[in-house]
Write a structure and sequence with these properties.
This protein is of the alpha/beta class and 1059 residues long. The radius of gyration is 28 Å and the shape is globular. The two termini are 40 Å apart.
């Protein structure tokens, strides 16, 4: 039933990439926006993330890249007057914002209908106690629990239920604030965390079912009451580990058909009871492995993190159909895009097994214990498909890009452990536990023992065990492949060749091959023949970026999608290879053909051999495809654009130094170290401080500023304990650079065809050099550089691009010290900043760069496309988003190793407005707190900050300062309130934040340590939404942002109108 009064629909996005809410919502939002726009609706999109496909100007009719706060949403609704809002596609952020606007009466005031789920249904699902009551009323069993709104009530509930307990705050994402509790002391501490996490200050305390089996069902329902289960997902890991951090398997493997049907019925009844009128929902269950008892744990009344996985696992476009069901379609009216002939009411059937493994970045956060629990900590994931569980598990392990070749790969961390140590590794859930389990099976430990230690279901362990109980010479290669063997597991050449020859490609068809598939969405497995054939068209293969990780995230998927689009728009057959289920690049209709495969040489070579492409694009997917460049070239395949020699010229320090000298481009003093001994010698020659940088890595992996001998020894000690993926000496030599202090860092993004060069953007960092560019606040265009310096940057960038013979994309990082320009590095590939530059300037530099890689010239592109014809009259600020709340032991002090998971954009007519909005989008709403500033400076920084503090004084900020800083200010006739250390009597450095007396902290840290006051100040500031700045430029930027508080809300506009 269609509501004909609805002409325009507002979609609320999910904001920046954070742990628990990542790029799967870009995928969902993009699908929904396309679907609704194709139906003729005017689509209005609000999101703060510039690195997403969904915020491209073409995706919606009006795209607002603005802070996702109630104030800004209200202003946009007032301006656009949408007829309806769809809040179920932007994760928990969108859902919570919609409920806040509903309670404020905004939707009622502007006559905006809520689609997908009513406010009452959302409240029923998200309020843990109301959900429990609703389930029990219809006979669906839940866990014994009590609902509390204060810590005192929580302590009483703990006594009544008994330990262990599980805490579940209302209205959260990624398990934030949840936790297992085993005693009163833990309960008191974790209750505080839980209440901080819940925007409604509500927590459900329930009995723990740690060790039970966990299942998820992805469910869709239409307005006529039709319901389908899209996908059943089983967790390999037991209850007690967040499902986002667990290995998961689809379809469900260990339930009988009867058990599955009962669970299916309860999931559908759950949606009906909650009142989900239309769309997709996720329902989670726990099952006691001893007796089959079942309990519903929770349901998400929205498209969830698992929805993207379920969509990719089955080929069923959940987000697209959720949007169409929300406007009145029913499931029988929608056609399955994969088959083109069956309706959406046909439940997908899999004749293959899907395995998802999360990807973690704990080495970035060395103060954090990597024990997994109910609060999600993974930063990405991979997905694999194959005919059996073990084959799929091997492919998933290979996809992680951590140096592991599959389930039979011997892990050096465990091979020498004694029995007690290995038992401990299997008992304690950590990211590496799967490899400890494999080592135990290799040692012939019993499945029963391993299951008792880990609570992993015996069925999975028996299946893996089979791989260790066969002989490669007497077992048919078809069976070896099905048992998870790869070419890396055998030494006999004939068997290796036969394993390769038995690789076939199957189509994801949603219907177990009962209907033909019209969509070339492929995975490799063992078999006799492939499901599809290759065409004779001119093909270009794009190698994707693999799993999200810090330093290589959604920005590179954005670049891959734009590259694919350029290929399709210009007549090439575009083929994608990738392993990431969260992304737009692996959507079934992005490329002409999709291979869902590990990005290892064996799998990539097999696709190249099969498709015989004209060219292979490796510039778009970050460092992952660059690592394959040498083998691609050696095997006779054409690398599109910049050659392998160009890549080596930027990574080989001697070649790069020679080239820079030739072009009169200054560099910091630098050396190369192949091992620890050479590293010490290089440091001795340069002198402290030095910047240590590994070769061929992204995100500043293992990059450090080292100031003295103790820090150098500590760095080497950390490397000695790293696994293969974590030790930078395994990827090439370590680069040792003179560390330039008190500098301005500059990013330049450009495209070059070898003759002509276009500078796409010059970004000036607010933080000084030494903070990784991915963590810095970047401003476009530059705000403090004079014309002479800008000319020098442009001139040297162009000369370097031509001298390197770059064909395609190039990112250059410069530092300015004492008005002298130094080059830091150059990367002949897409950069993390290019989506930001493309979005703000409206110049489609990735598309243009892709065509240049294939031989087109800049002159051709300017003449024949509209890729480079836009201009911009706005100022844009990119601000990084950090996962500090997931890693409470970490200091928030920034350095050369990237820690950010995502970014937000602030855009405005003036720098202060853009900065104000960037702060707001990052969770710091300037002007919401009292007009106070807290200053705590190291002795060496006090004099330099004096003029800046006087500016705050002149703006009537009340100044609070630590003892030494306060005395220094008094000597300079600036009065301040002296505050004590964290543990002193009030006022202290912490109580002034807790009482909302300040809006910004100026803190120049000396060193990171959790026992220092500085650590506590920075942590509490982050938790309280107080800005922290550590440089004069940042402090003065905050002043500009503060001065524009009243103007920021009125300076809103669509990205379509930036030029």
């Amino acid at each position: 039933m269609f509501d004909k009064s609805i002409k325009s629909i507002l979609i609320i996005g999910s904001g920046p990439i954070v742990i628990g809410q990542a790029c799967e919502f870009d995928y969902s939002g993009s699908q929904a926006a396309k679907a609704l726009k194709n139906e003729g609706y005017r689509v209005i999109l609000v999101n703060s993330n510039p690195a997403t496909i969904m915020t491209d100007p073409s995706m919606a009719d009006a795209t607002y890249i603005e802070p996702l706060t109630a104030k800004f949403l209200k202003k946009i609704i007032e301006k656009e007057k949408p007829d309806a809002v769809l809040p179920t596609l932007g994760g928990q952020t969108a859902l919570n914002l919609a409920m806040e606007l509903h309670h404020q009466g905004v939707f009622k005031k502007f006559n905006v209908k809520i689609l997908g789920a009513s406010a009452e249904s959302i409240e029923l699902a998200e309020n843990r106690w109301k959900f429990k009551e609703a389930m029990e009323k219809v006979g669906i069993k839940t866990l014994k629990a009590l609902y509390v709104t204060t810590v005192s009530e929580g302590m009483d509930a703990g006594k009544e239920i008994g330990f262990p307990l599980m805490l579940r705050p209302s209205y959260i994402l990624g398990g934030g604030g949840t936790g297992l509790v085993f005693n009163n002391e833990e309960l008191n501490e974790k209750l505080k965390d839980a209440f901080r996490a819940s925007p409604t200050q509500e927590v459900l305390i329930e009995e723990s079912v740690y060790g039970w089996k966990e299942f998820e069902l992805e469910v869709m329902r239409d307005i006529d009451g039709n319901g389908v289960i899209i996908c059943g997902i089983e967790n390999f890991d037991p209850m007690g580990i967040h499902t986002g951090d667990s290995i998961t398997v689809a379809p469900i493997q260990t339930l009988s058909d009867k058990e599955y049907q009962l669970m299916r019925d309860e999931a559908l009844l759950c949606l009906e009871t909650i009142g989900i009128a239309t769309g997709g929902s996720n329902v989670q269950f726990a099952v006691n492995p001893k007796n089959g008892e079942r309990r519903v744990i929770e349901m998400n009344p929205r498209v969830s993190r698992s929805s993207a996985l379920a969509s990719k696992a089955t080929g069923f476009p959940i987000a697209k159909f959720a949007a169409l069901l929300a406007v009145g379609y029913n499931l029988t009216e929608l056609s399955n895009d994969i088959t083109g002939s069956t309706p959406a009411s046909f439940e997908p059937v899999q004749d293959y097994v899907v395995v998802k493994i999360p990807r973690f970045d704990f080495p970035k956060f060395p103060s954090t214990d990597d024990v997994l629990g109910t609060s999600m900590q993974s930063v990405g994931e991979v997905m694999s498909m194959a005919s059996t569980f073990t084959e799929s598990l091997t492919k998933a392990i290979r996809s992680l890009e951590i140096g592991k070749t599959g389930i039979r790969n011997i892990d050096n961390r465990f091979i020498n452990l004694d029995r007690v140590e290995l038992e401990k590794e299997i008992t304690i859930p950590r990211p590496r536990r799967i490899f400890a389990v494999l080592e135990a099976l290799r040692r012939n430990w019993s499945v029963e023992k391993i299951s008792n230690l880990s609570h992993i279901d015996k069925w999975f362990l028996y299946e893996i065990e089979k791989s260790f109980n066969v002989n490669q010479e007497s077992t048919p290669t078809t069976i070896l492949k099905m048992l998870g063997w790869t070419e890396d597991d055998v030494e006999i050449k004939d068997i290796k060749d036969e394993l390769s020859d038995k690789r076939v490609y199957k189509l994801v068809d949603t219907c177990s091959a009962e209907f033909s598939s019209s969509t070339p969405y492929l995975y490799s497995t063992t078999g006799q023949e492939s499901d599809d054939t290759t065409s004779s068209k001119e093909k270009v293969i794009v190698i994707g970026s693999g799993p999200n990780r810090i330093g290589q995230g959604i920005e590179f998927d954005y670049c891959c999608v734009h590259g694919i689009s350029a290929l399709k728009e210009n007549g090439y057959e575009a083929i994608m290879i990738n392993s990431n289920p969260e992304t737009v690049s692996t959507d079934y209709d992005t490329a002409d053909k999709l291979y869902f495969e590990p990005l290892n040489w064996q799998e990539v070579e097999a696709v190249l051999s099969r498709e015989k492409p004209k060219s292979v694009i490796i510039q778009l997917g970050g460092q992952t495809p660059l690592k394959l460049a040498k083998k691609i070239s050696e095997n006779g395949y054409n690398i599109a654009g910049s050659s392998i020699e160009v890549i080596d010229s930027t990574e080989d320090r001697e070649l790069f130094q020679k080239l820079c000298t030739q072009e009169n481009i200054k560099q910091p003093i630098s050396k190369i170290a192949e091992n620890a001994t050479e590293l010490r010698e290089s440091v001795a020659q340069i002198g402290f401080p030095v910047l240590l940088r590994p070769s061929y890595v992204l995100g500043g992996r293992a990059m450090r500023v080292v100031n003295n001998e103790d820090e150098l020894s500590n760095y080497l000690d950390v490397l000695s304990k790293s696994d293969e993926d974590g030790n930078p000496f395994n990827s090439g030599p370590l680069l040792v650079d003179e560390y330039l202090t008190n500098t301005i860092e500059i990013d330049v993004d450009l495209i070059s065809d070898g003759t002509d060069v276009i500078i796409a953007g010059i970004l000036e960092h607010l933080e000084p050099a030494g903070v990784h560019s991915g963590d810095s606040t970047a401003v476009l265009p530059p705000f403090s550089l004079n014309e002479e310096m800008l000319f020098e940057i442009e001139d040297k960038s162009k000369r370097l691009a031509k001298s390197l013979n770059v064909k395609g994309l190039l990112n250059i990082q410069f530092a300015i010290k004492d008005n002298t320009l130094y080059i830091l590095e150059a990367n002949p590939r897409a950069s993390r900043t290019m989506p930001f530059v493309a979005k703000v300037t409206k110049n489609q530099i990735i598309k243009a760069g892709t065509l240049i890689m294939l031989g087109h010239t800049i002159k051709d592109i300017l003449m024949n496309t509209d890729y480079l014809n836009a201009s911009n009259n706005k100022i844009a600020v990119k601000k990084a988003i950090f996962p500090w709340s997931r890693f409470p032991a970490e200091d928030t002090m920034l350095g050369p190793e990237m820690k950010a998971t995502g970014e937000v954009l602030g855009i405005g007519s003036e720098l202060g407005i853009a900065l104000n909005k960037a702060y707001a989008a990052a969770g710091v709403e300037i002007g919401e707190k009292k007009k106070g500033i807290f200053v705590t400076l190291s002795d060496g920084d006090k004099e330099g900050f004096l003029k800046t503090i006087i500016k705050y004084k002149d703006l009537d900020f009340k100044i609070y300062a630590t003892e030494g800083t306060s005395e220094f200010l008094a000597l300079n006739n600036i009065s301040s309130v002296k505050v004590g250390r964290a543990n002193d009597n009030s006022p202290t450095s912490l109580t002034i934040m807790e009482e909302n007396l300040i809006s910004v902290v100026i803190n120049t840290p000396t060193f990171a340590n959790e026992y220092t006051d500085g650590w506590k100040i920075r942590r509490l500031a982050h938790d309280s939404g107080v800005a922290v700045v550590s440089s004069i430029r940042e402090a003065e930027g905050f002043i500009e942002a503060y001065a524009q508080t009243s103007n920021a809300l009125n300076d809103i506009g669509t990205i379509q109108d930036v030029s």
